[in-house]
Amino acid sequence: xxxxxxxxxxxxxxxxxxxxxxxxxxxxxxxxxxxxxxxxxxxxxxxxxxxxxxxxxxxxxxxxxxxxxxxxxxxxxxxxxxxxxxxxxxxxxxxxxxxxxxxxxxxxxxxxxxxxxxxxxxxxxxxxxxxxxxxxxxxxxxxxxxxxxxxxxxxxxxxxxxxxxxxxxxxxxxxxxxxxxxxxxxxxxxxxxxxxxxxxxxxxxxxxxxxxxxxxxxxxxxxxxxxxxxxxxxxxxxxxxxxxx
Length: 245
Known about the structure:
By secondary structure, this protein is of the alpha/beta class. 26% of the residues lie in helices and 24% in strands.
């Protein structure tokens, strides 16, 4: 099976071609028919499904018999294949390696995002090591013809050894235009000094001043930090308070 087709068709938003026909309202429509559809709602898979895409958005999905396909739509037969929702990589690092070598570059960022897309990953949270090129590439991703995963960046991981240094790092990331802040509260199995509450309190406070969410790299979570964050759970993924953006 062609896994690029299997998965990237699940992404939906990558699949609008310039050669598509238009419906009566002039919108481009592509109809994917015959596939098994897993819609992500928990309902049973739909065999022989139809999925319509117009202008980068899904406009209809369900049993083929229940979907009205516009007369001039471009029809792609996916019989024998499966369509799934796009996968979210909630903890990735984009662009920082080439093979087994640490080597950040814009080319590496693009390559990593294309590779994620090939595996059906539509969105990546890049949790640290993101340089200005990553922000520039992220800023270009609002396109229905995007041929790679979308991603969101943390910038430099906050590892300051004083409250002032941590605040300065947060300010630097905010000025870069990151989507969230990542702090590291870990002693690397006893090989380094763990960030003290005084420092991570300062980092979190500074992130809130910039209206930025916080991601925590930690092996065990101090109760004081949990209370400070005000969130119910902490993993190595973005953390959000109720009502936050």
